[in-house]
Amino acid sequence: MWLRWLPWRFLVRDAARRRGFLDPVKVFAQLRNFAQPSEVAAPTELLRSGFVLHARGLINSLAIQHNLDWIWPYWVECQYNPRNDAFIPRSFSSTQINLTHRNWTALGIPDSNEFSIVDPRGLVTPCYDGWSLDAWIIPAEGGPLIPSRLAVVSQKLVMEGGLCVITESHLDKLKLQTKVQVIGSAQSPVCQIQVEGFSNQAAQLVISLRPYNPEGVSFIHDIALLPDRNGWQVNKKDYVYFNLPP
Questions:
Q1: SS3 169
Q2: Which of 10, 131, 153, 236 is the Cys-Cys partner for 169 at CB 3.0 to 4.6 Å?
Q3: Residue 96 located in a structural domain
Q4: What is the C-alpha separation between 79 and 64, in angstroms, rounded?
Q5: Distance (Å, whole) CA 167 – CA 157
């Protein structure tokens, strides 16, 4: 019973002050004053989701800012580029979230809670808030075809044979097409990605497992090649299968 009388407010206030943060008890008291005569003191659900969002944004800031030479999703390539109309200065913000390109497309099976998303450049996130799969063409000579770094691509929604998103990108004589749809049943949906590449010279078609999604960084802690070499096990729970062993 002693836990009920523990001075939580004093402990929280003292911990915040010792680390240079605002007193959260005082902040909530001020919010309560602003909310009068509302019956709800403060939208705690929104505050909770906001904390989660900006915690993610802090990870994004630390990971992206110091590794801009990596291949990032389309929103990062735009939002971190001073020459792009979507550029957002970062000097006075400790967190970085996607504020400019939140127009991805969701795909799923009716009556299923699971869905996959495709961003404006064809990046596929099969599982909710998870890692992603990207496709590139790396020629023997010349620049690579990386859709997230292209100014223009073609993307369309097709209803024939099931709902799917088709993304086509071009660079010189390189061409890449991805077709994404969710198949199976509502109980066990499967994200299916068909990738076709064309090059007029020797080149490699790359299917890359990426530690991010259109919201930002999404950690990959473990990757294992399946015994028959036809896929990966990711984070010891999700599977990626190839129709041909790479």
A1: strand
A2: 153
A3: no
A4: 11
A5: 9
